[in-house]
TrEMBL record:
Claim: Aminoacyl-tRNA synthetase is one of the keywords in the record: no
The protein's name: Cytochrome c
Keywords: Electron transport, Heme, Iron, Metal-binding, Signal, Transport
Species annotation: Sulfuriferula multivorans
UniProt GO molecular function: electron transfer activity; heme binding; iron ion binding
SUPFAM superfamilies from the UniProt entry: Cytochrome c
Amino acid sequence: MYKTISPWVLVLLAGLLSACDKAAESVATQGALSHDGAVSDAAPLDRKLGVAQIARGSVIFEKSCAECHGANGKGQPGDWRVRNAEGKYPPPPLDDSAHAWHHPTAVLMEAIRDGSPGGEGNMPAWKGKLSEQEMQDTVVYIKSLWTDPVYRLWLKVEQQSLEP
């Protein structure tokens, strides 16, 4: 009743499965799949960040943030991952060379609003000094500093944070 599967069929199936794994790995390293299954990196990235909001955020960043986080969010000399003599972490760069992009918008807003989490750094709380809109503009400006590949990775972080 049952037919034996030819070893050649098994080799063919293994080859097809291997090709699928390589295609999935390529998508994982190059970008996410869109709803229609196409690699989204093929199309230009529409960040949906308003030019006016970026400009406002840039002004706020320069006035309130650049002293610690460096011009254009590039950070200060030294290693931001090593605690200073006070046992606190120095301000990290906010471009894509550090970890800001690992956090969803809500966490970035909270850090600006409430300052360094758990006293780990010296960032002051900006609540009461900056309006909610100014904080949002600043976060949008920071996101504009990230390269497309990093922004795509951040989008995944943001989407995961919004899932129930």
